[in-house]
Design brief:
Elements (H helix, E strand, L loop, with lengths): L3 H25 L6 E8 L5 E9 L6 H27 L10 E2 L2 E2 L1 E3 L14 E4 L7 E6 L3 H14 L5 H11 L2 H6 L2
Antiparallel strand pairs: 1-2, 1-7, 3-4, 5-6, 6-7
């Protein structure tokens, strides 16, 4: 568990990385949107580490909707990932969802579990996190691809996942924004 001082520093670092990534994605992909809501969830406990937090500004009056979507995306990864992790531990890898790097499950993007009929979109990533501690970063407020790109880039900026793993995840999720960013 985190000591209070370390926790405060961690939260500041993650929020800074998310704000930085959202700004970069807005510029790279020439978005007319200016921000949205971010949440951070501990995969192991299901606990919300950072509750839905406004990053930038929401200029279209859909703040409540974006807040709800960022929570849904994180919850979807939380609900699907345990079953997948058990399959991987049993060496029964269900492709194409998880990927294995050096024998370790590397992550999952919510776009890989997208369901338009249920209004379930991309925009969250599950990473192994600090020292292998899995974290879910989720954002809503930009376009679907931009939301997910911002979370991938933020995860790398916050040093919770390697650039190599993010590029692999972005390739699998077909996120061209991230692939352009890391050219």
């Amino acid at each position: 568990m985190f000591v209070v001082r370390e926790w405060t520093d961690f939260v500041k670092m993650v929020l800074g990385a998310v704000a930085w990534a959202v700004e970069r994605v807005i510029v790279i992909d020439e978005s007319d949107r200016k921000g949205g809501y971010f949440t951070l969830v501990d995969y192991e406990t299901g606990g919300v580490l950072i509750p839905p937090t406004l990053i930038g500004e929401v200029i279209n009056g859909k703040g409540d909707k974006y807040k709800s979507y960022c929570q849904e995306k994180a919850g979807r990864l939380l609900s699907v990932a345990p079953a997948m992790a058990r399959l991987i531990d049993a060496s029964l890898v269900p492709l194409p969802l998880p990927y294995i790097t050096d024998g370790v499950w590397g992550g999952l993007a919510s776009s890989e579990l997208r369901d338009e009929l249920r209004e379930q979109w991309g925009g969250a990533v599950l990473t192994l996190g600090i020292s292998g501690h899995p974290l879910i970063l989720s954002f809503s407020g930009l376009t679907e691809a931009q939301d997910e790109a911002a979370m991938m880039i933020a995860a790398n900026k916050a040093d919770v996942v390697s650039r190599r793993d993010i590029r692999t995840l972005a390739s699998r999720a077909k996120n061209e924004i991230v692939l352009r960013f890391y050219q």
